[in-house]
Structures are given as structure tokens and as C-alpha cells.
Write a structure and sequence with these properties.
single chain
Length: 214
């Protein structure tokens, strides 16, 4: 209901939030739904957080899990190579590409100013390539992003890592956050169809079967 039917085709969607807010579970649930529909699923597990056992519990068996092609890059350079070569496995069959998370290995790859500049350039190139693939194929692109906090107006502002780059390329942005209730999360719609929005959100909890309404 929040998205008006689901994540948009031929667009880049971004989920961001702090740890344990449900980014990976929601991504896995989307991958599972696509596999159930016989669509192709390519899951780039850059954070090493994908759990085949959890996925099988969500679906009650391994049948659909076997339809998900899993990539686990070792470093940011490896992630670049995987994303740049996705076109070779895409066909006319509708597909979902998940990158969880797009900035995990980017953030872990430390270095001086020259290396940071090169890393930012590579991240921008990855997103441009994913945007091009989404425009040319029947493709959903779902990214998750880690966050960092910065002081702003007497408060701490929570934003995705590489904020400017991710916000530029993402057509839809959802922020996931904790609530005072330990088992309840809040999903806030911040951008839709390329335009910023406000005031739209949905509460959910994480159960054995994935995301559940509250």
C-alpha cells in the first residue's frame, strides 16, 4: 500500500537504515516473491548477511531458494566486476537485482584522498550502469545502504553513506528505523518516481515468514 503496488519496474529503489531495521529480510522477501513468480533473481550479498537457512524457513523448503543466483564479492573491486558483468546474464525474462549493501564494501575500503576519489567514481559508475540496465531490460533494482550520523540543528541526522550519489540515482527511497516497541519497525517513504515526498510511512514487524503488518 505504501508503494502503490510494489517496487517500481525499471527504476532504482533504495532501502537504508541502521542495523537490525529489516533491510536484508525485506530484500530476501522480495527475492523470494520474484522467484515464486518464475522471474530471475540476482542477489549480490556484499555484506555477507544472506542466510539460505533463513530463506528456506521463510518458504518451507529449498525449491525457490535454488532459483536465486547469489554473488558474494570479497571486496569493492570484486563488487564492481560483478555489477559490470550483470548484463551478460540478463534476458527478456523480467528480473530482480538486489545489492545488499551497495556501500558496505565501499565503506570498508579505506585509503587516502586519491583512493577515496577513485572509490566514489567507481560507486557512481556502478549506479549509472544499474540505471542503464534498468532502462534497457525488464528489471527491478533494489539496493540497501548503510547509514552514518551527522550533527544538524542540534540533532543527529541519519543519512545513507554516500548520500549525494545514492539520492541522485535512486528513484524511490525508503528509510527503515527502530520504534520504541522492540519488535516493531517503521518504514518511511522519502522519494517516489524521482520526487521527494513526506508524511507517508508504514509500521511492520519481522516474523519467521519475513515482513508482517502490525
Amino acid at each position: 500500500m505504501l508503494l502503490g503496488g510494489g517496487f517500481p519496474l525499471r527504476q532504482i529503489s533504495l532501502l537504508y537504515g541502521e542495523a537490525s531495521t529489516g533491510k536484508t529480510i525485506l530484500s530476501m522477501q522480495c527475492a523470494l516473491e520474484m522467484a515464486r513468480k518464475d522471474f530471475r533473481v540476482f542477489y549480490v550479498d556484499a555484506d555477507q548477511s544472506f542466510s539460505a537457512q533463513r530463506l528456506e524457513r521463510m518458504i518451507g523448503g529449498p525449491e525457490f531458494a535454488e532459483r536465486i543466483v547469489l554473488f558474494q564479492p570479497e571486496d569493492f573491486k570484486d563488487q564492481v566486476g560483478i555489477i559490470e558483468n550483470l548484463e551478460s546474464v540478463l534476458t527478456k525474462t523480467p528480473a530482480l537485482v538486489v545489492v545488499d549493501s551497495i556501500t558496505g564494501l565501499y565503506r570498508a575500503d579505506n585509503g587516502g584522498s586519491e583512493k577515496i576519489f577513485a572509490r566514489n567514481r567507481e560507486l557512481n559508475r556502478q549506479l549509472a550502469h544499474l540505471n542503464s540496465l534498468a532502462a534497457r531490460f525488464k528489471l527491478w533494482v533494489l539496493l540497501t545502504g548503510q547509514v552514518h550520523s551527522t550533527p544538524s540543528g542540534g540533532e543527529w541526522l541519519v543519512e545513507p553513506v554516500a548520500t549525494r550519489t545514492l539520492k541522485h540515482w535512486s528513484d524511490l527511497i525508503l528509510r527503515l528505523r527502530q520504534t520504541p516497541k522492540t519488535d516493531v519497525r517503521d518504514c518511511i517513504l522519502e522519494k517516489k518516481n524521482g520526487g521527494e515526498v513526506s508524511g507517508y510511512h508504514s509500521l511492520f514487524r519481522i516474523g519467521e515468514d519475513g515482513i508482517e503488518d502490525v
